[in-house]
Amino acid sequence: MPETTPSSVSADSAVQAALSAVEAQRAAVKEFPGKAPAFARALLALGDAQRDAGDVAASEAAYREALDFAAGHELPGDVLASLRTNLATLLDFSGREADSLPFYEEAISNHEALGGENAEVAAQLRNNLAMTYKCMDKFALAEQHYLRALETLENKRGRRSESVACVFNNLGSLYYAAGFPDQAREMFEDGLQIRAEVLGENHRDVAQSLCNLATACHELKDNAAAQQHFEKSLSILESQLPQESRSYEAIATDYIAMLEIIGEEAKAEALKKRVDKVLASV
Asked: Do 153 and 163 contact (CB within 8 A), yes or no?
């Protein structure tokens, strides 16, 4: 018999409470149509509770029921925005990227219409949507959403922010995948500069940005710069072992592969020994 943990009991209790609230509001809205927003919010809360409990199918059904209900009722913009946002991310993170697209698009429109802080939420959703389009090889659409997200975040937070650096990094990855290493390098450099200023020179995200930049430099045949960036990245992560062991090993593997490609077999072998020794000691 499976063991029941406190967290699973808590999740089940939350679902049961949300189910009870939905049924109460369902009965109320039949008698008082003005209760429509409360019923939609109850379905939203139920979907959230079922998602947190790991029941993706039930969560999707609750969100969809609320959106179907919304088609015939006047609901506040924030409720519609939340429903579409949560359904989009649920579908996206469940491997149903294509199904998530219309809900991302509608959620973005809802958040932008609300304005204020919701504009930043819309920018983050554009970032998610762009990643999905990139995975589908729809590079032009991905670029469009990344650039819109970048514009919003720069206007709201200023250029010197981690969220802006993240979009620069994602743009770099997009341009690299699309076959434009020059543009990728430029984006990775911008993202690296911001991260180093905001997070500090020795942050793990700075190490990842250095690795990305190294990859673009290698593609552009600037192997001296690529080696320099790889070495700095590994140096940062070495100082943060054992927490960063997986990242350290992954970046070292990329560096070794590059060294072998450019004919630096001796250096690649020496790096392998160094990495094995470092990882064995943590």
From this structure: yes
CA angle, corner 27, sides to 61 and 19, nearest 5?
A: 40
pLDDT tens digits for 117-151? 999 999 999 999 999 999 999 999 999 999 999 99
CB under 8 Å to 123, separation ≥6 — which residues? Answer: 148, 149, 152, 153, 156, 163
Q: What's the number of CA atoms in the CB half-sphere (13 Å) around residue 187?
A: 24
Three-state DSSP string of 45-90? HHHHHHHHCCCHHHHHHHHHHHHHHHCCCCCCHHHHHHHHHHHHHH
Cα gap 228→190, rounded to integer Å = 17
Distance set, CA 91 to CA 56, 82, 144, 184, 210 (Å): 9, 14, 22, 29, 32
Phi, psi for residue 159 in degrees, rounded to 5: -65, -30
Query: What is the Cα–Cα distance from 239 to 204, expressed in whole angstroms?
Result: 10
What tens digit of pLDDT does each residue of 226-263 get? 999 999 999 999 999 999 999 999 999 999 999 999 99
Using the Cα atoms of residue 257, residue 259, residue 264 and residue 269 in order, give the sign of their dihedral.
negative
Chain Cα centroid distance, residue 162: 13
Residue with tokens 């018999």: 1
Which residue shows structure tokens 């939350």?
Answer: 14
Prediction pTM value? 0.86
**Residue 37 near residue 79, CB atoms below 8 Å:** yes
